[in-house]
């Protein structure tokens, strides 16, 4: 991270501190539970707590990198995974279909023994962890995004810290395209449609989710 990114982050932290004083509306408990499980468990292996390093696909799902590596290496998927899993994650065929997430730090929560917390470095907010009734983590989680291909994670409003004309990642300062902002665990159907459309466009351009070009050795084969 360059000096510019550091000072931007410092200002952003101050802004977040102010926001924390505001009240947060509470959702229905059951709905909240389902929502929270996506923020605590690997999308592929639902019995595994999310733990660094994390990766994400073009849909903004969260996975443990180890689970995805196992998935990619498994030759006999029919035997190792359920039909539902195979169908749900068939879009992950190679490492280029995922992006490793950056700017996250894992610590042990003070309030809850043995419970890990993953914090987002940019803004120093809770990304994953036990919800403290006094924290606004639930609210914050709704707005986390990452940028492809750098994988830097931040809250969406952090993107507004940079000049819109420049479109530079506030963390690594690399230039990105507006379409390469991936909302994490979004439940907004419109947003999910945008993500599907983005991937369709990338496929037509022979580009993977992580921005790398597909090899065109056998154009008939397709994907
Ligand atoms: Zn970045």
From TrEMBL:
One GO term of the biological process aspect: DNA replication termination
Pfam families: Rtf2
GO cellular component: nucleus
Superkingdom in the source lineage: Eukaryota
Protein name per UniProt: Replication termination factor 2
Organism: Tetrapisispora phaffii (strain ATCC 24235 / CBS 4417 / NBRC 1672 / NRRL Y-8282 / UCD 70-5) (Yeast)
Gene behind the chain: TPHA0C04910
